[in-house]
Amino acid sequence: MPVQIKKKIPLDLKGVPVGKKASVKKEVGEYIIDQIFDHLERGKSPVKGEGKFKKLTAPYAKAEKGGRTTPNLELEGDLKDATQAKNNQSGVTVGIFDDGEIPKADGHNQFSGEAKAWAKQKKFPKRRFIPDEGQEFVTKIMKGIDEIIAENRAPTKKRLTVQTDSISEREFSASQRVKKSVETEEFVRIELDDILDDRSILDELFRQGL
C-alpha cells in the first residue's frame, strides 16, 4: 500500500448541535491548515516533539531562497497547495491529497522506510509537518481545536433544584400560625359575647365607671 501523508484527527463534538457539526469540522480543519503554514513560515514543526527545522545552507539559500536560511517548504508552492483538510465521519483528516506531491511530502516527513533511507543517504534533514502514528500537533494547536469546539457547543441548561421538604416545613409552620391566630381571635370573640350577655357583669362595669 502506497504511503499516505495524512493524519486523522477525531473530534469530541458532544454538545455541538447536529446541524453545526459539519461546519465545526470545517472550521477546525481550516484552523489546523493555517497553523501548519504559520509554523512552517517560522521554520518550526507544528508536530509535537519535532522542534525547529535545520537551517538551509548559505549557498542553497542564496541560490533558491533569496538568502533566507529559514526553511518553509515553499519553493514552488505545490506542496503547500496540496496540504489540505477534509471532514471525515469522526473529525477531520489533514495531509497531502495530491498523489503527485506525496513523494516530496514523504521526503520531508519521512514516513516511509524508503524516505528514511534516502534521507539518511543524502543527509537530508527531517521536516515533519504532518503527525505520524502516535504523534499529534503541538499543544497550542490542540488547545485551539478544543476552544473552537467549546465555542460551538449548545449552552448547558441549568437544572432548578427545589427542596420540597424545606418548603413543606415552612408552609406547615405558616399554616399553624394562621390556625392559632384564627383560634385566638375566635376565643376572644366568644369571651366578649359571654360578657355582653351577662347583665350582672355589665352592671358591675358601669358601677366602677368602666
Notes on the protein architecture:
The protein is mostly helical. The protein folds into two domains: 6-152, no CATH class; 164-207. It contains eight helices and three strands. Strands 1-3-2 form a three-stranded antiparallel β-sheet. Strand 2 (83-87) and strand 3 form a beta hairpin. Helix 1 (21-41) packs antiparallel against helix 6 (139-152) and helix 4 crosses helix 5 (113-122). The longest helix has 34 residues, at 164-197. It is elongated. The chain starts with 5 loop residues before the first strand and ends with a helix.
Descriptive labels:
single chain; 210 residues; mainly alpha; 3-stranded antiparallel sheet; elongated
Short note summarizing the structure:
The chain is mainly alpha-helical and 210 residues long.
Describe how the helices and strands are arranged.
Elements: E1 6-10, H1 21-41, H2 58-64, H3 78-82, E2 83-87, E3 91-96, H4 102-109, H5 113-122, H6 139-152, H7 164-197, H8 199-207
Antiparallel strand pairs: 1-3, 2-3
Helix pairs in contact: 1-6, 4-5
Largest sheet: 3 strands, antiparallel
Residue windows where pLDDT falls under 50 for at least 5 positions: none
The percent range for strand residues is 5-15%
Helix % is 40-55%
Derived structural class: mainly alpha
Record field, number of beta strands? 3
* End-to-end C-alpha gap: 118 Å
Question: How many structural units, i.e. domains?
Answer: 2
